[in-house]
Every structure is written in C-alpha cells, then in structure tokens.
Amino acid sequence: MNSKPPIVMIHGMYGTGAVWHRWRNTFENAGYVVHTPTLRLHDVDPAAPPPPGIGTLSVLDYVADLEQFIRSLDAKPILIGHSMGGLIAQLLAVRGHAQAAVLVVSAAPAGINSVRWKPLRTFFRILSRWGFWRKPHFPTRRAADYGMFNRLEKSIADVEYSRFVHESGRALFEIAYWWLDSKKATRLDFAAMPCDLLIFGGADDGTVDPGVCRAMARHYGARASYTELSGHSHWPLAEPGWELITQQIMGWLKERQLA
Q1: 3-state secondary structure of 229
Q2: What letters, b where the CB count within 10 A reaches 16 and e where it falls short, cover 92-104?
Q3: Pair 30, 102: CB distance under 8 Å
Q4: For site-directed labelling of 102, which of 32, 85, 89, 172 has its Cα 20 to 30 A away?
Q5: Could you tell me which residues come within 8 angstroms of residue 45 by beta carbon, excluding any fewer than 6 positions away?
Q6: C-alpha 147, offset from chain centre
Q7: pLDDT score for 114
Q8: How deeply is 258 buried, as exposed, middle or buried, from its count of CB atoms within 10 A (0-12, 13-18, 19+)?
Q9: Which residues are CB-neighbours of 71 under 8 A, at least 6 positions away?
Q10: What average pLDDT does the structure give for the chain?
Q11: H or E element: which one contains 156?
Q12: What is the pLDDT of residues 50-77, one digit of tens each?
C-alpha cells in the first residue's frame, strides 16, 4: 500500500487534465498516485463548438464536482492547482479536503484586488463583450501569447493552444468581478484554512500578476510559503525550468512528511 497521499492536480481555464502530463509523470515516478480530473464540460474536442451550458457554469460547480471525486479517494489528497485551478484548490482546502495545497500562479479568492494592467490587456476582448458572464469564451492566440505563453517555446505553445477548450463566462465573472457577485462564489475565510499552502507567482505573468500571489500569501499568514518564479509566466507547467519547480514542491512536501 502506498504510504504517500494521493495528489489531485486541478487545471485552469481553457485546459483539461492533459495539461499536467509533464508534472504527472514526474510525481508518479516519485511514487505518488496522481489524479488529473478534467472539469465539467471541458472533456470535449477542442475543434468542436462550445458545449451547451458551459457559459453559465460557476466556480462552485467545479468545486462540487471535485468534492465528490475527492470523497471517493482512499485518503485525503495533496491538491496542486494551476490558475483558476489554484482558486478551486483553495476553496476545497478550506472545506477540509486537502492535507496540503500547492497554488501555481493561482487566481485569487474574493477580497484580493486582481485588477492589473497586463491581465486586463490579456482579457480585454473577452471582458469588453456585453453579456460575457453568461457566455462561453476563448482567448485569441495573440492574447494567449501575450498573457500566458510569453515564456513558452513556440513549438510547445502551438501544442498547448491547440488543446484549449471553451471556458465559462460565469466563472470568469466570479473571479474578475467578485465584488459584483451576489453568490460570493469565490469568497473564503483565510483564517480558517486548515492546511499549509505553497504559493508560486510568475514574475513575468500576464494573466495573474505576481502581486496578486504575494497578496494571497500575506492573507494566509504563517500557513503560506511563497516563491516568485523568475523567468516564468503563466505556464510553468511547461516553461523551461519546470522540473526545478516540481523538485521544490517535493522538498516542501517532504518537510511536511507528505513525501
């Protein structure tokens, strides 16, 4: 029987569980059982039209699905979340569903101002469309190259972008305009976080400004460890040097007797 906790890796906007293939292989080779679930209505052909209902899915819909999945596991997992997946990981962890959580260039919960120039430029075309909060959305390649892939080799960016699928406008609204969200979907009690967090910010990130990640770490206080990744942007899952990040995570887990 594996003495290590399972790992659940949670992808972000436009992604599927496949974005984790490099990290998954690394952690599996280290002896972990790794799960990379795909969020609701994301397991589709990237070339197909957006599935009905995707535009109005809430972040809380994703959380509910993953809560059910986590309850099916033999042990409480370590959560690793990227971008929106990092926010989902926080919402799951504060509900007691994680032994530890790693937040990789994570979107922020309600209460943290995430309005910065670069992210606004990345998402301007989407956010400026009336009714985006109830419609599917998809980034242009130009926006992805500017805000997400600006530290990624072009050949890898081509592959990553070809796998993108449509995302929920409702979820984007809940993250970007949390103060207007009557359901308070992304709100949590920072002081109630029951597990330790390792938070990574990308120094050159054009989607989640590193200042947002630093603010998250401050809100969690002693529960959080923060590292700013020099030379990294919003896709440290595949950017040069991604292996060093996974090594740092494993070292952090070992310190907490989770390795």
Answers
A1: strand
A2: bbbeebbbbbbbb
A3: no
A4: 172
A5: none
A6: 15
A7: 86
A8: middle
A9: none
A10: 97
A11: helix 154-162
A12: 999 999 999 999 999 999 999 999 999 9
- Of the candidates 239, 204, 231, 6, the residue with the CA atom closest to the CA atom of residue 100: 6
- The Cα–Cα gap between 24 and 18 comes to 9
Regions of the chain short of the pLDDT cut 70: 1
Q: Are strands 78-82 and 196-202 parallel, antiparallel or unpaired?
A: unpaired
Give the chain's length.
259
3-state SS assignment for residue 93: helix
Residue appearing with tokens 């993108």: 164
Instruction: Give the span between the Cα atoms of 148 and 118, in whole angstroms.
Output: 10
Are residues 236 and 229 in contact, defined by beta-carbon separation less than 8 angstroms? yes
Q: What is the pTM of this model?
A: 0.97
User: Could you read off the pLDDT of 195-205 as tens digits, one per residue?
Assistant: 999 999 999 99
